Amino acid sequence: MPTSRVAFTGPVSPGLTLFPLRRGPGDPCFRVVDGVIWRASLMPTGPVTARISSTRNVAECEAWGAGADEFLDGLPDYLGADDDASGFAPTEPTIAEAHRRVPHLRLGRTGRVLEALIPAIIEQRVSGKDAFRAWRLLVTKYGAPAPGPAPSGMRVPPTAEVWRRIPSWEFHRANVDPGRARTIVGCAQRADALERCRSEAGLRSLPGVGEWTAAETMQRAFGDADAVSVGDYHLSNMVGMTLLGHRIDDAAMLELLEPMRPHRQRVVRLLEASGLARNPRFGARQAIPNLKAL
After folding, report:
1. Which of 110, 122, 159, 289 is least surrounded, with the fewest CB atoms within 10 Å of its CB?
2. What is one GO biological process annotated to this record (predicted)?
3. CATH number, domain containing residue 219
């Protein structure tokens, strides 16, 4: 059983860093048990189950499966050990207070593009609850059992080949409309090239992948501290309510965050992680039909 330890110069919080990877409370690839994080992933060398815990400024990880060694080699990146926040010294009072409350927030990067991209596609234009259910159903049925002593029900995400071969009616049963299903299959067909992609522009060149989806992917796969999820139903209102006391649109949000470059997404995460964010997220991004009833 390979293991690894990563020491930090200050407090470490894997929960804060890895929280964006969890796709809802029932995510079969992400579980928290007694304060310990379990993560199932698919590395180029094979599947892996990782058990991540921490004490003060040290994170420890045990891993099982063919991809265990590769996962542990990338553990510092996963936990944001090389997250560069140099030059980030906010003067806006609310942002400065958020930074003071959670100075140990780190932005991690998984390096797994397809694993970040497909759930982001599923989340396009629908409520979180609906998207999380679809992800749970598809991964539970088409993913592989997580290796090692993983909590019951944990699964490794499907391979690109499996995503390509999921029948259209299975997407329908999961309430994933044909447009999103086509985008998922198209991206899976380009999986090898996608894993070499390192830019938001490259992701947006894919049919069905827009600014929001590309940003969500860049945040998780590469820890992009400046990739703002423009087009999110809630985000601009949250930023406006928190910093100005009223709702704003995307254009106003980008103008407001412009002085924070290249840390605009870091600001968003700080506001959310600090508990200072206002305008609780509720409702769908867009009302959608119940495809199962059609």
Report:
1. 289
2. base-excision repair, AP site formation
3. 1.10.340.30
Identify the weakest region by mean pLDDT among 3-12, 23-32, 265-274: 3-12
Residue 94 contacts by C-beta under 8 Å, 6 or more apart in sequence? Answer: 242, 243, 271, 276
Whether 158 maps to a domain, the answer reads yes
Q: What is the pLDDT of residues 147-185, one digit of tens each?
A: 999 999 999 999 999 999 999 999 999 999 999 999 999
What mean pLDDT do residues 28-51 have? 97
Q: Count the domains in the chain.
A: 1
CB 59 within 8 A of CB 79: yes
Residue ranges making up the domain that contains 55: 3-84+92-102+109-226+287-293
The verdict on residue 247 lying in a domain is: no
Instruction: Report the pLDDT averaged over residues 201-221.
Output: 96
Helix %, strand %, coil % of the chain (to 5) = 45, 15, 45
Helix (H) or strand (E) holding 41, with range, is: strand 36-43
Which tokens is 237 given?
């209102």
Task: Give the SS3 label for residue 64.
Answer: strand
